Amino acid sequence: xxxxxxxxxxxxxxxxxxxSEVMPAWLVQQKQSAIEQFKSCGFPTLRDEDWRYTSxxxxxxxFFEVKVTETxxxxxxxxxxxxxxxxxxLVFIDGxxxxxxxxxxxxxxxCDISAxxxxxxxxxxxxxxxxxxxxxxxxxxxxxxxxxSKDGYVVQIADQTQLDKPIEILFVSASDNxxxxxxxIVQMGRxxxxxxxxxxVSVQGLTALSNSTCQIELNENSKxxxxxxxxMDSAAxxxxxxxxxxxxxxxxxxxxxxxxxxxxxxxxxxxxxGEGAHCDMFGLYNTAGKQHVDxxxxxxxxxxxxxxxxxxxxxxxxRSRAVFHGRINVEQDAQKTDAIxxxxxxxxxxxxxxxxxxxxxxxxxxVKCAHGATVGQIDEASLFYLRTRGIAEADARSLLxxxxxxxxxxxxxxxxxxxxxxxxxxxxxxxxxxxxRSEA
Length: 440
Known about the structure:
This protein is α/β, with parallel strands linked by helices. It has two domains: 2-274, no CATH class; 378-440, no CATH class. The protein contains ten helices and 20 strands. The chain has helices at 2-19, 25-41, 57-60, 121-125, 129-132, 140-148, 380-388, 393-409, 415-429, 436-439; strands spanning 88-93, 96-97, 111-115, 153-157, 167-173, 179-180, 183-188, 193-202, 209-218, 223-231, 237-246, 251-258, 263-272, 278-287, 292-301, 307-316, 321-330, 337-347, 353-362, 367-376. It has a ten-stranded mixed β-sheet with strand order 2-1-5-8-10-12-14-16-18-20, covered by helices on one side. Helix 7 crosses helix 8 (393-409) and helix 8 runs antiparallel to helix 9.
C-alpha cells in the first residue's frame, strides 16, 4: 500500500504549493497534520474491526487524481434534477462549487448558505469552530478529506429561524479517475428548523471516488431533517461520514437512501449531549449485481432523558453484499435513556450476502434499550395470495419487495424526493406498468 500512500502525499505537496497562499495559516497547518496522519495510518484494511467486512481493493488499486485547480467539468444536470422540487440548491461538480448551476438567492433571512471554496481569507479567519478545529480524523479517509478538501457547503441557521423551503446539495462526479473531497458544516441556532437534502450522483461509467464529510451541530430546541440520497453509478465509490452533536431538546431526523454505487460506506455518528435530545435514523439500501454497501452507525447517549429510534432495511439481489454495524453507547450519566435499533434484510438471491451486527454498550442503570436484526426471503404464502389474484409472479415478487421497504419510504416527507426514489426502486424491483406508489 506504500505506493498508493506516496501517490496522495505527492499530490498533497503539489496542492499545497498551488493553494497555500490563498489559505489562512491555521488551515495550512490543519491540512499538513491530516496528511501526516494519513501517512501514518493509511487506508483501513480487513484487519480493522470496523472494516472487517468491507474490502477496499477497488479503491487502493486505483490512483485517483485530486484536482488542484478551481475549474469544473461541464455536465448536463437535467437527468439529475428532481422534478417539482422547490428548494434552495447548491451544485458541486467533482467536489467544487458550480455557481452557474446553483439556484441561490442573494440572501435568505436568518440563514447563511455558502460554499467553503468561495470564502475569502477574511471569511476563513472567522470560520465556524467546527471547521477550524479540524473535525474527527478517525481513519485514512477522514484524514484525506481534511488534507484535500477545498470546497463543500456551510449552512448556518440563526436562532428561531424556520426555512420556508428545503436546501438541496447536489454533488455530481463528472470526471473519470477523480477523487472529490467535499467537507461540509451545518449549524442550527436555538429553536431553528430546516430541511436539508444531500444527493450524490455520477455520470454513467465513470470510475470516480467521492469522499465526503459533514459536521452537524444542533443547538437547544433546534430541529433538522437531513436526507442523504446516494445514486452513483456502479463504477463509482462513495465514502460518506456524518458527525452530529445534539444539544438539549434538539431533534435530528436522518434518512439514508442508498440506491447506487459500486462500493458505498456510510459512517454516521450521533452524540446526544443535551438532556431531552432525540434522533431518528431511517435507512434503505437496495443492492444488485456486485454492489457493496456498508452502513456503520454509532449513537452515543451522553445525557439523561434522551431517545433514539433507528430502523434500517436492506434488499439484496444477485451477488451483491451489504454490511450493517449499528452501535448504541449509553454512558453512565445517561439515565432514562430510551433507544431502539432494528435492521431487517430481504435476500432476493441465494448469492446475496448480509453481515449484520447490532450492538449495545450500556453503562447506566435506568434505561430502556432494544436491538435486533432479521434476514429472510419473500414469504411464499403472500406470493401465492397475489398469484391467485391474477398478478404475474415477477410483479408479485416486486410488489412484496417494495412493501417490505415501505415503512422507511413513508418517512420521506418531501413528495418530489419520494417520487424520485420510488422511480429508482421501480426500475429495480417492479414492472414499469405497475404503479408501485398506489399498489404498495
